[in-house]
Amino acid sequence: MELFFLFEQVVNGLVLAGYYLLIALGLSLIFSVGGIVNLAHGGFYAIGAYLAVTLTPRLGFAPAVIISPVLVGCLGILFERFILRRFYREDPILSLLVTFGLAMVAEQAIRMIWGASPLSQTLPSALKGGVELGPLLFSKYRLAMLGVVLAILASIWLLLNRTSFGRVIRAGIQNPDMVGALGIRLQPYMTTVVMIGVSLAAVGGALFAPITTVHPAMGAEILTIAFIVVIIGGLGSFWGVVLAAVLVGVVRSITIQYLPAASEASMYILMFLVLLLRPRGLLGERMAKFEG
Amino acid sequence: MEETKKFIMSRRQVLKTSVGTGILMASGLTAPGILRAQEQPIVLGHLVPLTGFLGTLGQYAINGLKLSADQINAAGGINGRKLQIIAEDSINPETAATKAQRMIERDNVDVLVGEISSASALAISEVATRNKKLFIATGPRSDVLRADRCSRYMFCSDIPNAVMVNAVGTALKQQGMVEGKKFFTVTSDYVFGHDLLKAAKAFFAENKAELVGDELVPTDATDFSANILKIRQARPDVVCLNLGGNQVTNFLKQYAEFGLSTPTVGFNLNTADAWAAGMGNFGGVWPTVWFDTIDTPGTKKFVEDYKAAYGGEIPENHAWIEYITGNILAKAFEATGGTDNEKIIDYFETEAEFDILKKRPAYFRKFDHQLVQEAYSFSVKPEGSYSTVHDMLELGAVVPAEGEKLTSIYPDDTGACKL
User: Fold this and answer.
1) ipTM of this predicted complex?
2) What distance in Å separates residue A45's CA from the closest CA in chain B?
3) pLDDT tens digits, B100-125
4) Homologous superfamily (CATH) for B2-160+295-372
């Protein structure tokens, strides 16, 4: 029986990995391409959640989950065009400060527009409840969410590895100067990457709204976890983030089975151990632009 | 900045003012008014969490105390002195203690008010006691604040955990959901949760219920899927939540998501967190210290005033508790003729009664400084019988019932609190 419980938690951890991946993937993209640590990532996540909650009564749940990230993506274009663009080649501390400030602006803006008290968002009844597959219990909603995450993951992988767009991005991650020397302007690519990155955060917000509290500070809640996943995975690595999300999900679930009070601490201990053994993260690459 | 500006006047302003005052003095009409307006305000140092899992409740707290001060000031203040609030995010126990110390030393606050986290309240209470400064703890519910860790300088206006357990326990017993039942508790891993778990365990033991699982969760946990699977493994009859702030919201939403049929009950749920859980996501019986549909003229007026001041928002229990705490303090300043903390403490210790917008007045108990008052239970209406989250909840009976002694739901004096 004990062994079965352990297995059940491992499976739950795999489902949970989708949840962590959704918030970490966009952060990792912007981080690796622009070299920008986007502390405002949680802000976009929160705005995504709020827009989805606002749109749901008018359009229904599924359209809201699609439109909210599109709107946030547009915000992302403005964010890149007018703010981030100035900081690619500057001291990283500047972009840290700017995005940190922006996170606070986002939180306060939410307070001013939607009020400080949390909003309620309910699951569509078709996705509510559990489904038993053999002896295992799954939440229907999380399975659906996992499907969405896998679809997103596949599209981004294809975009990065099977298109000319992706080739430029990957080259830009490694060595932006060389890309420039070849006569390719990285700017429009960057705009697109930031747009995709913050849209992913908004997808996360919109999908989590029914199963977590929608409140102004919700962005700050997920930011730390998102960073832990990115750092464990290793900078610039697509599969690193995926692997890290799975690890964090499984480790956390198993910890809850045996020592629930340590569930949050388990992620930090995992990060500590990984960095001790592999300072660049699990699959982190050497990148010309960050060396010497 | 503003304060320095107020006191630095140009020569011309001084001349103008003194000439003006002279004329008014001569006319002998408005002079006392002018003199009053120049008296120093009474400063309340307000510390509540505005971020983290209690942040939502903190915003209600800020609004509630501000409404009380605004109304008092609009009516002319206290003996001519205005109430001024310096409010800050208390964040965590360490920061709360630092800020309390700074408010006492630098801002010269007359009284410290606030807090929701029991851990932060303990930290502030230590600072307050060291500085012999009165601290009215408005939101923390841990029993230890009224027992081993009580202080001459701390008064508690919210109900303690023991009362929360009694309020819900009575309702549960009536429904036959306690005796012989298997309980699984999920508890917030800090002083409040531990304290609530202790009270819950005592209640289970007393009523022959069995505890089959007992889970601690960190306060920053937002995902409960693994805990929910463990509950399913343990097959309890009732899931009992001893969580704080939006942890309850997150848990209830995810519990509904997994569709487990075991009923949930809980010994702590603030109405704002219940509203946030959304419709059709939970049932059960819960305790509360105040509810917006309590049928008294005072509560009705407060709800109307609050909605008018804050864009139609319905107040929840933390807005109410700060509001009545502001009013109680104003009464104490008036009764003692100033802000001398020792005099105010002695005044509270006479067990003077205050109107707190409920049927029966309340008073601070002399031996543990607890505001003795009525409590309530509330339940969730059947699905489909309501259309918005704000009329999803139904106020239950008042505890203790009318005619019974108010103190009957409060712990007796065990001698643990030595003031």
Assistant:
1) 0.92
2) 15
3) 999 999 999 999 999 999 999 999 99
4) Response regulator (3.40.50.2300)
